[in-house]
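input
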Amino acid sequence: MSVSGYYEIMKKILFLVIVLPLMFFTNCASAPDAPAQDTKGQPQKASTATNKQPVSKNGLSFDKMKDDDIVVRFDTVTITKQTFISTKSEIEVVVENLNKITLDRDFNRWLYYVSDEYRQNFSDRDVLDAVSASLPNKKIRLRSLQDYFNHVFVPSRQNMRVDDIQFVSPIRVYVIMEITPSSPAAIYILEKIGDGWKLVPKNQ
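output
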């Protein structure tokens, strides 16, 4: 099988892995424990609440909120409309950069967006074995983080976009993309570490 043929099959299978679970999605409100990427790094179904504009405590739609109206609250930390908008803009830049990285298959540049937690998770022997077992090409065996990047991340993260974001903590965000109309999926989990947003795995 040619390389291009393999990637076409890979994309179709990954698309089904993303879309089929979403067909059975029926609940979940916007909350810190909404589903996102699994241990294998596959996009997961997103809360239906992420498909709606945030509503303020006064019942106002997002468009009618003032910049200092609270969109999300975490104990003593609040996320205002202005913070929500600026965060989404920052994440759109990150996702665009990740799109360029996957297009160029640039592993070294990708590492800039990888947190220590993410690096450790997808360098773990057991995790790599589990991901290898899920690949359509059973001849591929992942042995390193770079193998994971080449055989899983690159083919499954082509042309991503930010349709919405969902704060799951004051510094951690699910990046939401509609895979099909009315079928949102969390394509990335990003955490603000230092001055930038880094990829992190889903908490187990």
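quick obs: The longest helix spans residues 81-104.
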